[in-house]
C-alpha cells in the first residue's frame, strides 16, 4: 500500500466521524472556526518541522511509494495525519460530550 492509500484510509475515517458529529450534534460556528484554526496550525507546523527533519536527514521516504508532490521537502501525504487528527479528535470529543452542556457545569462544583 502506498503512503497516499494509507493516508486516504485515515482521512476517510476522520471525515466520517466529522460528518457524524456535524449531523448529530450540530456544532456552532465557533466550534467550526476553532477546528479549522487547529487544522491550519497543525498543517503549518507539519510543513515547517517535516522540512527541517527531512533536511537534516532524520528520516527518509521510499520515493516509489510517494505521489511525487512535495511542499518543500515534505511529501504531500505527510499532511494527511495532522488533518485527520484535527478533524477526528474534536469531532469525537463533540460526540462523546453530554447532550446537555449544563450537565457538566453542575458536576464540576
TrEMBL record:
InterPro entries: Lycopene_cyclase_dom. Its main location: membrane. The chain crosses the membrane at residues 31-59, 79-96. GO terms for biological process: carotenoid biosynthetic process. This is Lycopene cyclase. It is a multi-pass membrane protein. Keywords: Carotenoid biosynthesis, Isomerase, Membrane, Transmembrane, Transmembrane helix. GO terms for cellular component: membrane. It is found in: Membrane. It comes from Janibacter melonis. GO terms for molecular function: intramolecular lyase activity; lycopene beta cyclase activity. Pathway: Carotenoid biosynthesis.
Amino acid at each position: 500500500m502506498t503512503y497516499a492509500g494509507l493516508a486516504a484510509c485515515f482521512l476517510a475515517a476522520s471525515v466520517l466521524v466529522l460528518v457524524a458529529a456535524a449531523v448529530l450534534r450540530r456544532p456552532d460556528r465557533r466550534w467550526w472556526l476553532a477546528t479549522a484554526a487547529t487544522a491550519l496550525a497543525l498543517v503549518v507546523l507539519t510543513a515547517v518541522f517535516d522540512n527541517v527533519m527531512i533536511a537534516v536527514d532524520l528520516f527518509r521516504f521510499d520515493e516509489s511509494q510517494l505521489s511525487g508532490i512535495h511542499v518543500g521537502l515534505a511529501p504531500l501525504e505527510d499532511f494527511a495525519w495532522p488533518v485527520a487528527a484535527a478533524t477526528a479528535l474534536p469531532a469525537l470529543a463533540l460526540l462523546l460530550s453530554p447532550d446537555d452542556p449544563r450537565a457538566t457545569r453542575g458536576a464540576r462544583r
